[in-house]
Amino acid sequence: MALRTLESLGSLAGKRVIVRCDLNVPLRDGVITDDGRVRASLPTLNALIRAGARVVVCSHLGRPDGSPDPAYSLEPVAQRLSELLGMPVAFGRDTAGESARDAVAALEDGDVAVLENLRFDPGETSKDVVERQTFARRLAELGDALVSDGFGVVHRKQASVYELAEMLPSAAGLLIAAELEVLDRLTENPQRPYTVVLGGSKVSDKLGVISHLLPRVDRLLVGGGMMFTFLAAQGYKVGASLLESDQLETVKGYIADARERGVELILPTDAVVAAGFAADAPHVVADAVALEDTEFGASGIGLDIGPDTAATFANAIRDSRTVFWNGPMGVFEMPAFAAGTTAVAKALTQVDGLSVVGGGDSAAAVRQLGFADEDFGHISTGGGASLEFLEGKQLPGLEVLGWQ
Ligand code: ADP
Ligand code: MG
């Protein structure tokens, strides 16, 4: 079965339409540093506004602990959305409480309201289905239909993504449809060599995808925080770098599996090691086999791939016909540790074929480093979601919209 589209919802004029977006943008001191996900949500919102719907936007932002936390308020995002839409946007100061109900009740046809961060309610991400349903039921009272367009969260069985879609007439928005069109090209007969580049900091989330990707790809490049678990699995010391020590055996298995399958698993041969996690921390380049042999000893932290690795990765990428990249190679937010990410981004722009960047921080990185969206085949709003899609997994947030 195919994904239910907006048209399947019939006329939406005068109806209250909840739109589950992924407006999880990077913020620094309350200021949005990359509004890509807000922009990506505009086509669906504009279509609904034109259709005369009363548009109720909801999203999560960051990882608050299930209660209101001003640091994770969606209010700055609502303001940015208002600027981009060129019209006023109302803001509900709670997620499904009195303020949200008032904001929705005041909407006229073609108006837009944003509700407060879904994750201020523990029901959104609860492991308990009854708790999720209870929260979803409160959200469902605010709308007559649901348009699910938060591609970045479709791999999560969460109240607004899954249970809410079961309770209301629901369909996929234009962003999800566009994302799937590109990702389909990566899963159905990708042109080869097909290379996947992994990095970032959500190491435990991302290690698991590797076993499913190995049968599909020709090359796998590992940088970012997860490289240190691979280096440690080869017996090297990694100082104070990010390390998932309970995953060492698993990672050894991946290394062996890659060898058996003839997949080129390319691991870093050098890294930038710093005295601490700070933009101005003293730092040196060290061989991957000797990360603790610097002046910082065992307290050195690896914060980027080194120049040799960057050159090797860039060659392997440029020489591929299909490339998917998720996760920065280093702490690119600090200029001293951005070189690896810059080199990989640049190589992706030179691919003769399809290049796809996925993930909130990866997308933010390429823009922050001065690349244009058009330099890449596609910039996906979803990191984890794209990876799980490429693994061939059934994603709950798509399944509930009719996708099989
Ligand atoms: P995405 O959002 O693209 O899926 P992640 O959220 O997994 O990516 O990771 C992004 C973060 O990873 C960035 O904030 C970056 O600073 C961090 N990162 C990259 N390399 C390292 C490293 N070696 N040590 C610590 N953090 C790292
Ligand atoms: Mg991220």
Main beta sheet, described? 6 strands, parallel
Arithmetic mean of pLDDT: 96
Major sheet strand order = 5-6-4-1-7-8
In the predicted model, the low-confidence regions spanning at least 5 consecutive residues are: none
Question: Into which percentage range does the β-strand content fall?
Answer: 15-25%
The radius of gyration is 22 Å
Specify the helix fraction band.
Answer: 25-40%
Structural class: alpha/beta
Number of strands: 17
Gross morphology is globular
* Amino- and carboxy-terminal Cα gap: 6 Å
Distinct small molecules bound, one entry per kind: adenosine-5'-diphosphate, magnesium ion
Number of helices: 15
Quick summary:
By secondary structure, this protein is α/β, with parallel strands linked by helices.
Describe what you observe in this structure:
The chain is an alpha/beta fold and 404 residues long. Helices cover 34% and strands 17% of the residues. The chain has 15 helices and 17 strands. It has helices at 36-40, 42-50, 75-85, 98-105, 129-140, 163-167, 174-187, 203-213, 227-233, 248-261, 307-318, 339-349, 360-368, 384-390, 396-399, and strands at 16-20, 27-28, 31-32, 54-58, 90-92, 112-115, 145-148, 170-172, 194-198, 219-222, 264-266, 270-274, 283-287, 301-305, 322-326, 354-358, 378-380. The strands form four sheets. Strands 5-6-4-1-7-8 form a six-stranded parallel β-sheet, with helices on both faces. It has a six-stranded parallel β-sheet with strand order 11-10-9-15-16-17, with helices on both faces. Strands 13-12-14 form a three-stranded antiparallel β-sheet. The termini are close together. The mean pLDDT is 96. The protein binds adenosine-5'-diphosphate (ADP) and magnesium ion.
